[in-house]
Design goal:
2 strands; mainly alpha; two-stranded antiparallel sheet; Arc Repressor Mutant, subunit A; about 120 residues; about 5% strand
Length: about 120
């Protein structure tokens, strides 16, 4: 069976990222009910324990919370938390290496800014 998941990273992380993306993109808002474990298992045809692992991480971090007998819901402040985490990851994964490479090439901060502004798809 094929599914929409990428074999290069664990599926539980991809399940987690799927829900995170829905929160960041306002498809799921604070207080909204998140997809149930069973819905995700049935839709993506993946193991229940795998789905649970991804969802439980979000619960442990306060992104989702459980209402016993009802389901999982998006916690207050979840989007703000996720956006903050993603900004930090963006700096760690992209900006630091960009600055390091620019230094090696003798590119100034202003040149970096100009390159970003003039790159197709950038805003500003």
């Amino acid at each position: 069976m094929s599914n929409a998941f990428d074999s290069s990273k664990p599926i539980f992380l991809q399940v987690r990222e799927l829900i995170e993306d829905q929160i960041v993109n306002d498809q799921l808002k604070e207080g909204d009910q998140a997809p149930s474990t069973n819905q995700l298992v049935n839709f993506y045809k993946i193991n229940h324990a795998t789905v649970s692992k991804g969802i439980n991480q979000l619960v442990e971090e306060g992104i989702l919370f459980k209402k016993r007998g009802i389901g999982m819901f998006v916690a207050e402040g979840a989007k703000q938390t996720l956006v903050g985490q993603r900004k930090e990851a963006f700096v760690d994964n992209y900006v630091r290496s960009l600055i390091q490479e620019a230094k090696k090439l003798g590119i100034s901060q202003q040149e970096i800014i100009d390159l970003i502004k003039n790159t197709k798809g950038s805003e500003g």
